[in-house]
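Work Package 4 report. The design task specified in the project plan requires that, given a folded chain encoded as structure tokens, an amino acid be chosen for each position. We show below one input record used in the internal validation round.
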């Protein structure tokens, strides 16, 4: 058994489009994900987030589940288009009211809110003006951040600018699997830089309103392995995925390999805006990646299928907890050991509700045990790891995979919206409540 440090933050993560539903309620404007889901072939089961887990109406029940779990923190995202339906202009009070009720209920129950401003659901109104390819979107994002700081700065201690902007740039604008579904080399670079710029501008905007807010950002980091098979492809994937956001935010530079391609979008002073002191860094980690060069494509590199020698989840993601340990150590060495939170980690399975009304998911419990053991080892090795947020509280809309992959520790029976804690929920509850794995 390994003990975690006292005050280690145990939490769960979700995101607006994946759980809220209520897409046409109380003045919410359409987002790029509403639009993307309408196109046949984009989502494997032809579904969308229109209802999802109906969290918009059921959040008290979901917060009670967090309480039962023993979670001290909840990382959720706010849907920009509930606050400003088009992504700019007047504030929609009903959207503010919804998040206020949610936040008040969390605080009343001693769960600390961690508010993320962007978990991919860009308002369609901004996409119509060029989305993240348009530099102006970064300034609209800062305005939205300021609005959120004004309304919630006194009740929310932790603000997160983006969730996984690297996935937005690559999967949304390069490989085309996510909204807005582009395969465009120039868009990969422009969105990369504009998302970074938006982060920096938002940090300033929040601090202007709430000088003592804790502010961080969340980036997905999955180590690239087997470099010897294609060192050029591996270096490119590593730069685009693992460094193009982390380096400018934490070091104030872009990786050498990408500088020329990014240069047309980088204005004087931008890197200083992006590189501002942060209170924490959120790292989302699930797996490892293997790369193959793909010259002539928008990204120039593709991700290879997992190795058959390594166990994998139903998502085809390799289960390799030792690489989390290694990555945390590399992170410490490269970035000077800032406070880190693992803001997502979890396992997709094809869970089933059995006749007794139970969901047995030993694969997920094993996954949590092994990744948390790796995290604990990293703490022993001096990594400044302060907390862990499981992905995810609920089964939910898994983007292009629709509802075919379940990531929750709580099973959602979508036709009835009944929540059924899985065996892994109780496994994690034991860890969270005893502070040891
Ligand atoms: O569901 C996603 C989440 O929205 C972002 N990080 C990875 C998760 C699993 O794919």
């Amino acid at each position: 058994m390994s003990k975690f440090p006292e005050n280690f933050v145990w939490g769960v993560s979700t995101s607006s489009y994946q759980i809220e539903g209520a897409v046409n309620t109380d003045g919410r404007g359409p987002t790029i994900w509403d639009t993307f889901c309408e196109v046949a072939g984009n989502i494997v089961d032809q579904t969308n987030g229109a209802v999802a887990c109906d969290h918009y109406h059921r959040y008290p029940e979901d917060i009670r589940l967090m309480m039962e779990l023993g979670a001290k923190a909840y990382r959720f995202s706010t849907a920009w288009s509930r606050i400003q339906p088009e992504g700019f202009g007047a504030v929609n009070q009903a959207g503010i009211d919804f998040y206020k009720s949610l936040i008040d209920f969390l605080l009343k129950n001693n769960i600390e809110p961690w508010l993320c401003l962007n978990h991919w659901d860009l308002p369609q109104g901004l996409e119509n003006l060029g989305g993240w390819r348009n530099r102006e979107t970064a300034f609209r994002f800062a305005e939205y951040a300021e609005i959120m700081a004004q309304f919630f700065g006194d009740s929310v201690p932790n603000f997160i600018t983006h969730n996984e902007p690297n996935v937005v740039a690559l999967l949304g604008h390069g490989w085309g699997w996510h909204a807005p579904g582009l395969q465009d080399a120039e868009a990969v670079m422009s969105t990369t830089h504009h998302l970074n710029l938006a982060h920096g501008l938002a940090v300033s905007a929040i601090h202007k309103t709430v000088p003592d807010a804790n502010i961080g950002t969340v980036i997905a980091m999955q180590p690239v392995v087997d470099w010897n098979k294609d060192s050029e492809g591996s270096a490119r994937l590593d730069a685009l995925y693992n460094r193009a956001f982390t380096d400018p935010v934490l070091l104030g530079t872009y990786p050498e390999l990408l500088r020329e391609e990014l240069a047309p979008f980088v204005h004087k002073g931008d890197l200083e805006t992006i590189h501002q002191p942060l209170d924490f860094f959120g790292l989302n980690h699930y797996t490892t990646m293997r790369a193959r060069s793909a010259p002539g494509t928008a990204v120039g590199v593709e991700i290879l299928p997992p190795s058959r020698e390594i166990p994998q989840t139903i998502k085809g993601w390799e289960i390799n907890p030792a690489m989390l340990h290694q990555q945390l150590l590399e992170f410490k060495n490269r970035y000077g050991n800032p406070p880190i939170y693992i803001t997502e980690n979890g396992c997709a399975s094809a869970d089933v509700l059995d006749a007794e009304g139970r969901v047995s998911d030993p694969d997920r419990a094993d996954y949590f045990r092994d990744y948390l053991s790796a995290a604990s080892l990293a703490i022993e090795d001096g990594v400044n790891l302060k907390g862990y947020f499981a992905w995810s509280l609920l089964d939910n809309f898994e983007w292009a995979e629709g509802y075919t992959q379940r990531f929750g520790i709580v099973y959602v029976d979508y036709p009835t919206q009944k929540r059924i804690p899985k065996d892994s929920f109780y496994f994690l509850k034991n860890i969270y409540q005893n502070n040891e794995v």
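The chain has a mean pLDDT of 98. Validation will be extended to a larger panel in the next phase.
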